[in-house]
Specification:
Blueprint: H1 4-8, E1 15-24, E2 27-37, E3 42-46, H2 53-61, E4 68-73, E5 76-77, H3 83-89, E6 91-93, H4 106-112, H5 122-127, H6 131-150, H7 166-179, E7 184-188, H8 196-213, E8 216-220, H9 224-230, E9 233-238, E10 241-246, H10 248-252, H11 255-262, H12 267-274, H13 278-281
Parallel strand pairs: 3-8, 3-9, 6-7, 7-8
Antiparallel strand pairs: 1-2, 1-4, 4-5, 9-10
């Protein structure tokens, strides 16, 4: 596994965000946001509530169009590409609020994640023959043999999503994102609302998907303990602007970060906050 130092020194970031500005009417949600995501890294975007984290994610994934700035993925400008095209290129994401189809089974929800990569034409799909049948069989085998096994959800594969606990629903959403075959897995608050055991499981899956599958991770998260333990690089937003970025240890001691989270206080107070119980860290 690469170290944080080697990741930071790579001359070719996998994702590069430069001068990103997003405005809704006269209100700026993002102003001049810029950072790089190195291949094989875990990069976390943190900040107080309302800092612009989800707006940033929605802009990177193509749901919002920036007013200014650029987004480059694999050194290709994707700033004006639609969200489905970005997904097909390798940007897979989950959502802050669970966006699963509650009346469908776990397996069917996960299969939807591969939709952008399917090559079957309409006629084949309607008749369910030839290429469509082979593609469906290959898709199901890949999901069942890799993703479901990897996330340890074999026992619920045929269960309706509506019958699952919140923690399992978050795991299914991650599975659907992995079905998109992402180069960058974008996770929007992956452990929000989870108990300690569920949080530890999700943290393990995030580390394993990077180590075993070589997937780069970009996440927004309020659980500061998990962020500091997992991340190679941390980007801090406040009022839509980057106020600090760097190694986790560097960010913890940054006066601007302390001020953003605490208003006043010292670094020891902030570190206690960063390593708070997961059940309370989400209030940051």
């Amino acid at each position: 596994m690469q170290t944080s130092k080697s990741l930071a020194s790579s001359p070719h970031p996998l994702l590069s965000v430069q001068g990103l500005t997003l405005a809704f009417g006269g209100v700026k949600a993002l102003t001049g946001v810029g950072f790089d995501v190195q291949p094989g890294s875990i990069t976390a975007v943190i900040g107080p509530n309302g800092a612009g984290k989800t707006s940033l994610f929605n802009t990177i994934s193509g749901f919002y169009k920036p007013t200014e700035g650029s987004i480059r993925f694999r050194d290709q400008d994707i700033t004006r590409l639609p969200a489905p095209q970005r997904a097909k290129m390798g940007l897979g994401r989950s959502f802050q609020n669970i966006a699963l189809f509650r009346g469908m089974t776990v397996l069917d929800n996960i299969k939807l994640g591969r939709h952008a990569h399917l090559k079957t034409n309409v006629l084949d799909a309607l008749l369910y023959m030839g290429k469509a049948r082979r593609e469906e069989a290959a898709l199901r085998a890949d999901i069942e043999e890799r993703i479901i096994d990897f996330l340890e959800i074999d026992h619920i594969r045929h269960a309706p999503v509506s019958a699952l606990s919140y923690g399992l629903q978050k795991r299914v959403e991650m599975a659907r994102a992995l079905a998109m075959q992402p180069e960058i897995l974008m996770l929007d608050e992956p452990v929000a609302g989870m108990n300690r055991e569920e949080t530890e499981d999700m943290a393990r899956f995030i580390l394993d998907v990077r180590a075993e599958w070589g997937v780069t991770v970009l996440m927004v998260e309020h659980d500061m303990g998990m962020v500091m333990d997992l991340s190679d690089h941390v980007v801090v937003l406040n009022f839509g602007q980057v106020i600090a970025q760097g190694l986790p240890a560097e960010v913890q001691g940054n006066p601007e970060v302390i001020k953003a989270y605490l208003g006043s206080g010292d670094v020891h107070d902030l570190r206690r906050k960063f390593h708070a119980n997961p059940s309370t860290a989400g209030a940051a």
